[in-house]
Specification:
Its EC number is 1.-.-.-. Keywords: Flavoprotein, FMN, Monooxygenase, Oxidoreductase. It holds the Pfam family Bac_luciferase. This is TIGR03619 family F420-dependent LLM class oxidoreductase. The protein has 300 residues and is α/β, with parallel strands linked by helices. The protein has a single domain, classed as TIM Barrel (Alpha-Beta Barrel). 40% of the residues lie in helices and 17% in strands. The strands form two sheets. Strands 1, 2, 3, 4, 5, 6, 9, 10, 11, 12 and 13 form an eleven-stranded parallel sheet that branches. Strands 7-8 form a two-stranded antiparallel ribbon. Strand 11, helix 7 and strand 12 form a beta-alpha-beta unit. It is globular, with a radius of gyration of 18 Å. The N and C termini lie close together (11 Å).
Amino acid sequence: MKIGFALPQFHHQAYGVARTATFAAAIEEAGGASLWVGDRNLAAVRPRVGYGGQGNTIPEELNPAADPFVLLGVAASATSRVLLGSHVLVAPLYPPVQLARSLTTIDLVSGGRLLPGFGVGWSPEEYQAAGLDFTRRGARMEELLDALEAVWTTDPAGYEGAQLSVPEHHAPLKPARRPRPPFYLGAMSERALRRVARRGDGWLPLVVVPSYVDVDGLVAQRALLEEWAREEGRDPGAIDTVLRVNIDAGTSTARVADAIREIHERTGIEHFMVDSMYDVETVDGSVEHAREVLRLVARG
């Protein structure tokens, strides 16, 4: 199995971002496989839609949020082996040229280790702050993937769609990963899963230990994803999975490791990312937590 960990980005850990390079190097030395960021442009005081599209509240842990692109760049320069991913960037919020430029730079700095993960998000206020129509986020995502494909694989590059327009421009600086970095897509709904089946190089699901670990649901979703991929003429085995493991406050590392092993045994998922922001306050504490998770998972 590959076990990765979230960079210090949210909640108390966000105030330790000055030690991101130290954290990244320590995780790599400990045997971690990957380092990850999420994305929160803002946490609305009076949200119309709550966390994950449920209710009308957002966890206070998401109020402080460090920039994901900067964190990945710092981690890239401090490491040589680990993969660098986003689980997930709310990609439709970003202009495609600027998004492509930031991700290209990270991929080049890291020597081709970028796993860009995208989602459409659930916060109307984030779209309002960006001057965008929240109700069109799915359509914007589809066009964004087309625009990134164009910018990353052609020169000159341009794109024209109903939602996005990229004037033809010189685009000689390409990512290290060829022909382009893979598209990993977050998905739980049928519409989003079908997008993964059509367009995704990887799928990014989520569990929360111990409050939301639906292994049967993961198995069923993966079966649907593979069925729809075959309908699209794609090889389902070519679609990777990285499972995000959030941890409820007060959860032991032994329980986290047990959950990872059980999910692996029942689903075949090989790559996990663990986020301790709800449970661990300091960067040093997060490093020790990661080392313990790695030790317990390896021990079996």
